[in-house]
Amino acid sequence: PDNLRDINIIDEANNLYGLMRDSGLSASQLGQSLFASPLLVDSLRHQAESLFYPVQLMICHHVEDYHAYNYPELIGERTDNVKSLINILESSTQKNSAWDMETAALFWRATQFKKHAVTVLQSLIKHRGEMTPYEGEYGRIATEMEQVFGQLILDSLVAVSVGV
Fold first, then answer.
1. Cβ-count burial of 17 within 10 angstroms (0-12 exposed, 13-18 middle, 19+ buried)?
2. What is the CATH number of the domain that holds 143?
3. 14: closest CA among 79, 125, 67, 91?
4. Is residue 140 situated within a structural domain?
5. What global pTM score does this model have?
6. How many domains does the chain have?
């Protein structure tokens, strides 16, 4: 709960296999690190720090089965396999890790087409069952931070477009 107001900027992603393979890359290149646009990372970081929000630069590991990675204990006999995969990826870096299904694909497409991309992730308390991340005190913080994220992203893009 201490990091709910952090601005988590994903500046690196990895573990993307299928899309890279289907794009014709050799097996040795699959899953390698992909990087966010330094221009966008710097702009987001500057904007967040000017508003006195804590910033974390993180790596995002691509995952196809988000449920398995979020709740490995629910996978049954494959729990240990999933936990092992998580440990291997997280121990391969000094950065804090995030997991999603979109960032690595976004960075791959940006690399392919020589475009800029970055991801900003929000920290949420995810509850198993009926309760959503938007209930209670943590939910109030989540809703507040969504407003901050929206403005932060827009301000960062404006700053980049005017060369500030």
1. middle
2. 3.40.50.1580
3. 91
4. yes
5. 0.88
6. 1
